[in-house]
Amino acid sequence: MKEAQAAAKAAEPESGPESRSPLLLVVVLLLLVLLQSPIRRALSAPVMQNWTTVFVAVVVQALPFLVLGVLLSAAIAVFVPPSFFARALPNRPALAVPVAGAAGAVLPGCECASVPVAGALVRRGVAPAAALAFLLSAPAINPIVLTATAVAFPRNPEMVLARLVASLLVACAMGWLWLKLGRTDWLRPPSAHGAHDGQSKGAAFWGSVRHDVMHAGGFLVVGAMAAATLKAVVPEQWLRATADSPLLSVLALAILAVLLSICSEADAFVAASLSQFSLTARLTFLVVGPMIDLKLFAMQAGTFGRGFALRFAPATFALAVLASVLTGAVLL
């Protein structure tokens, strides 16, 4: 009798997540059919049409640059050995810092790739100050990012130069600051195990591309939604009150850059959509974002240790805001 009951129970279909997913899909489709009239009315409202227009515009403009940046970043991470950077940098750390910072202008790399590359440089014996300068400059001033900035600000070409100057200043200043004040015990030696161990270069390249496109694309969608919401939902007088205060507008966009964590290849289009704010405030958004945001803090803590990230991130944020304000006052 017990054997028969056990056999009957084994023959019953499992009720796990996989068996429930078609049912959930059917329920969702039924709800959409039943609620199609209210949904249609909501989408036809002027505020939703404005929201959709801004969202689609930001995503469509930014997506090509994001994909191109991810492709080039993956190619450099996979095909260019870290020893190349070690050989190319001067032996004197004080000179290696600006050289490493300037190297970011010719070597495309998004934030997700710059942290592992910097960790590899430290493992290969490069001065940490130079590796950190490259970590900050590569996502901020590479050709893809500067081209995207020029496209996003066609009426303000000075934004390209301002972004280049301010970001390079911060990268070099942080490198020299670490050289002067940094301590060895603050920086945990990065692990020697890479993310692509045991894979062919082709498999590692496409694996990196798939990961970065999904990762960066998700943050782009979040950033576009935030920009659309600010434009369409937040009362105009609130934005104007914030934008009219030079100090408040700069701090607001600096904090927004940290929270949104947008990929640097796409952030210029989000900044351009925030037209209520001054060019200096939007420059702050563009300088802070590629250097310190939520995902970068997590990656830096995972690669170099939490103690390093807790010291490095606030100093980078403060210097990025200061350099943006000074550069904006001179160039914008």
UniProtKB/TrEMBL annotation:
> Might you report a single GO cellular component term?
plasma membrane
Membrane topology value: Multi-pass membrane protein
Q: So where does this one cross the membrane?
A: 54-81, 93-117, 129-153, 160-179, 213-234, 246-262, 308-331
Q: Give the location in the cell.
A: Cell membrane
Keywords, A to Z? Cell membrane, Membrane, Transmembrane, Transmembrane helix
For this UniProt entry, what is the primary localization, expressed as one broad class? Answer: membrane
Q: Which domain of life is it from?
A: Bacteria
The record's section on InterPro entries has:
DUF318, UPF0718
What family does the database annotate?
Answer: Belongs to the UPF0718 family.
Mind telling me what this protein is named? Permease
Q: Which organism is it from?
A: Streptomyces dysideae
